[in-house]
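Backbone-to-sequence.
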């Protein structure tokens, strides 16, 4: 009996170890594909930024189009935004049966919205724009770093990424209670994208923010960025739900996003940021940055910085051509605060006060003349502008330094190794080690950091000697049953208490084994474990198929004698050299390939099997299908960039201006008539616009002709 028990125990431990290894491999596949997609987004954006940097518009019309292609809304003046998003002129029909809002908002408005969204009702566009307008007004008065105290509430609840999954937010409120004077919440960014109810989440959070401004705090995440929204679904969601007023809503939302605070401090001891830190993170700088200038953290850093010296000289009324080299060097390092050296003595407070007012007014007038802003369009003072005006001795940071600070806290991830290095996996931010964490904690007298940004199977995870806590609140993120969501509660002792959940109804019916948790000995459990695993391998096979041509070339490089076979070791090396996903291919091999008796792989038949699997779902020539699988996300993002009014259609003018941008980069001489002929040939249904299917079809036809 004892020997039998030992045998069962060994078998069980071996089974658990294999199960854990499969779970980790599945997780690696999901994350590697997700991060590769983020890399593609940043590369695509950098490509467009490069084109814009090196394109010389030939007319004011071209200049206006190009300037608005990637920076839609950034240069919109206050008065223009108010006029453009005029919600007061919108009439709500009597037939409208959804919730109604009146300002100032009351708790009943928030609960009514929750009930309406549970019933799948939609808030009228007038109320959406009114809510965004009031939210923007409130956010403009907030500091870059919010300060929360546990003295005024029993505990503070911190939630991570929600990513448009409204059911998770409902479950959090059901388990933990609604925001109230005794129930403080911090929502740590990434409210939108990927899920189907991102807009509803924003409406609920903004409503509670206005009802309880001292108890609800929102941090900006890397997805609160209109360039990221173009790729990951939020832009498309808004336009589908509000076909008439969608453009106005998007314009207001992207302006609200840039006013979201960047971080939250609890009791001056716990720092909450969306992504992470770097070895150059400076909370003092973060406190003073004018955050609203960074509509998109992805865009325009180099171009803005290159023009900085010219702008400073123009503001100071100097002409670069007339200035001496020494003067030019001085101007390049100049800063508005440098004028403080000419100030009268502080002893005469009245005289000093007059001098400050006069100097500030002169600078405002010069800036107005530079950007052609009239006095009637002067913006109200905000918290950040007041900080900048009162702190005359503050250092002057370059836009590049400010941009890097924000990029790092929104995009960075922790790593187990020491040091700080570029985050090449995501394509933005950095990887920071335990030593960097310790340095920041010691510098600012902090106990630990809370961040989000990464999906964790249990909904949370500690690292760096429990000094960094990752919290992720979107359950079933990759697939039903793939992960739990979680939130963390902090009391006056600042000891974290976690609550985990899975919001999807289907997830509750899965066995523990199906959720890749503790193994269960049942036939159903043994079959069910593959649910999440199969989803991961299906996505991986699509990725492999999308690179069929490159894989074939890589395999042939190892097949020197042209036998059509390669070793499994060479197969793994070749696949990683093409896909660069950092996956353990030798471990994944049994799920992907069937080897011959001699341990080799007939690679062409394997590639044909991949193509057959995809063709069974898409009746398209395999060569074209491969290209479309590889480029569809990029093509859709390019389409949405060109479609700057988010109408779902590219007008002839939008196509015309974008093609001039491409042809300038590729040194292709093409007349206006030639461009017009090209755009008409793509407009298959001759309605005067190009929809996405026509755009994709044209891409396929070009590839086929090549």
């Amino acid at each position: 009996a004892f020997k039998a028990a030992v045998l069962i125990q060994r078998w069980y431990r071996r089974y658990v170890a294999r199960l854990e290894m499969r779970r980790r491999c599945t997780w690696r596949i999901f994350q590697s594909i997700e991060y590769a997609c983020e890399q593609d987004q940043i590369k695509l954006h950098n490509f467009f930024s490069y084109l814009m940097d090196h394109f010389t518009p030939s007319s004011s019309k071209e200049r206006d189009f190009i300037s608005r292609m990637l920076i839609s809304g950034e240069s919109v003046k206050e008065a223009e935004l108010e006029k453009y998003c005029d919600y007061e002129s919108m009439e709500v029909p009597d037939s409208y049966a959804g919730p109604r809002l009146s300002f100032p908002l009351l708790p009943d408005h928030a609960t009514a919205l929750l009930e309406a969204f549970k019933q799948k009702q939609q808030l009228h566009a007038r109320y959406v724009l009114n809510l965004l307008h009031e939210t923007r007004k409130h956010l403009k008065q907030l500091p870059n770093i919010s300060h929360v105290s546990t003295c005024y509430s029993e505990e503070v609840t911190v939630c991570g990424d929600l990513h448009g999954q409204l059911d998770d937010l409902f479950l959090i409120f059901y388990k933990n209670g609604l925001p109230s004077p005794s129930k403080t919440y911090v929502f740590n960014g990434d409210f939108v994208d990927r899920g189907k109810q991102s807009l509803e989440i924003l409406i609920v959070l903004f409503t509670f923010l206005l009802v309880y401004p001292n108890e609800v705090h929102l941090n900006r995440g890397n997805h609160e960025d209109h360039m990221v929204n173009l790729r990951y679904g939020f832009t498309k969601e808004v336009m589908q739900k509000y076909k008439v007023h969608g453009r106005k809503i998007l314009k207001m939302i992207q302006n609200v996003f840039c006013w979201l605070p960047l971080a939250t401090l609890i009791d001056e001891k716990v720092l909450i940021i969306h992504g992470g830190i770097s070895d150059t993170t400076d909370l003092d700088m973060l406190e003073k940055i004018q955050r609203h200038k960074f509509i998109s953290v992805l865009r325009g850093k180099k171009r803005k910085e290159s023009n900085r010296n010219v702008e400073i000289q123009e503001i100071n009324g100097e002409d670069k051509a007339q200035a001496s080299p020494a003067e030019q060097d001085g101007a390049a390092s100049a800063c508005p605060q440098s004028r403080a050296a000419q100030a009268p003595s502080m002893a005469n407070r009245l005289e000093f006060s007059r001098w400050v007012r006069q100097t500030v007014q002169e600078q405002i007038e010069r800036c107005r003349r530079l950007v052609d802003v009239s006095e009637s369009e002067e913006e109200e003072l905000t918290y950040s502008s007041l900080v900048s005006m009162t702190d005359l001795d503050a250092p002057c940071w370059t836009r590049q330094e400010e941009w890097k600070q924000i990029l790092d806290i929104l995009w960075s991830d922790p790593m187990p190794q020491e040091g700080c290095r570029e985050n090449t996996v995501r394509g933005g931010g950095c990887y920071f080690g335990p030593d960097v964490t310790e340095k920041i904690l010691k510098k600012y007298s902090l106990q630990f950091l809370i961040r989000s940004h990464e999906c964790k199977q249990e909904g949370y995870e500690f690292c760096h000697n429990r000094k960094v806590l990752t919290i992720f609140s979107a359950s079933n993120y990759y697939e039903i049953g793939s992960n739990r969501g979680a939130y963390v509660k902090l009391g006056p002792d600042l000891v974290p208490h976690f609550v985990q959940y899975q919001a999807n109804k289907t997830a509750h019916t899965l066995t523990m084994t199906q959720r890749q948790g503790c193994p269960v000995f049942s036939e159903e459990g043994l079959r069910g474990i593959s649910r999440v695993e199969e989803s991961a391998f299906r996505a991986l096979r699509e990725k492999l198929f999308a690179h069929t041509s490159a894989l074939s070339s890589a395999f042939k490089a190892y097949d020197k004698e042209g036998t059509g076979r390669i070793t499994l070791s060479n197969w793994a090396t070749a696949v990683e050299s093409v896909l660069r996903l950092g996956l353990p291919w030798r471990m994944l091999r049994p799920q992907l390939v069937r080897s011959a008796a001699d341990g080799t792989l007939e690679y062409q038949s394997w590639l044909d099997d991949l193509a057959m699997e995809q063709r069974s779902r898409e009746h398209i020539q395999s060569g074209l299908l491969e290209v479309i699988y590889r480029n569809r996300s990029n093509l859709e993002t390019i389409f949405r960039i060109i479609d700057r009014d988010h109408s779902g259609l590219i007008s002839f003018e939008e196509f015309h201006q974008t093609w001039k941008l491409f042809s300038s980069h590729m040194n292709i001489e093409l007349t206006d008539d030639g461009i017009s002929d090209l755009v008409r040939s793509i407009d298959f249904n001759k309605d005067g616009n190009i929809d996405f299917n026509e755009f994709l079809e044209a891409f396929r036809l070009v590839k086929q002709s090549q």
